[in-house]
Design a protein that fits this description.
Elements: H1 2-31, H2 36-53, E1 67-70, H3 75-90, E2 97-100, E3 105-109, E4 114-117, H4 118-128, E5 136-139, H5 147-161, E6 166-171, H6 176-186, E7 193-198, H7 205-224
Parallel strand pairs: 1-2, 1-6, 2-5, 6-7
Antiparallel strand pairs: 3-4
Helix pairs in contact: 1-7, 2-7, 3-4, 5-6, 6-7
Amino acid sequence: MGVERKKKRGRLLTFVLSFFLILAILFTALVLMENEAGKNFRAELKARFETELIVTDQWPHAQSFDALYVLGGNIRAQRYKFNVVAKVYAQNICRKIYLMSNKGKMGYDANIAKNLTVDQWSFLTLDNAGVSSADVGAISMGKGVFGTMNEAEEVAAVVLKNGHRNLLLVASPYHSKRVRVTFEHFLNGSGVDVVVLGSGEPKYLRSLFMEWLKLKLYKVLFMLN
């Protein structure tokens, strides 16, 4: 029974991935249209994606949090998120900050005459923004195909191990729906409250479409599990 179930899940996942690939091809063709119909299509599609994908919470003025986790991303995206973290920290909303550990090397920095790792850059950037390095921790991630799912599983384990009662998440706005769905999946039944703040990072149609596809895929994966 177990083997047969795995085969069925594999076939379903293959079908879903093929469906998403076809959608991506059609989307690309439509977006490349430069006539008036193409422009109207892009504007309407962008608005619909934003409505479905962006589900950030209000700023928690009168609330404190046991822990904050910054979702991973490229350096540009992290700068936006770190600005939010610095504001949260300065207002004493949360004083325990977690990041995804990344030992990868960055480009050569002439000011310090060496190549920083992403972890070192993150700690230094936050420290310069007023967030004490003593209050920042980097969480090592296990191997996983799906980045946000992997982050949520590892962070949920840390949150539960340390007895945190609530968790503040900082993510790109268009990533917020998938972040919420994923973290709530791994924290289901734990009693941990999850709040998601958007970073203010600009939203582009291509990014919105890819995020929409990922959200649909995650929902299928959660149903399979």
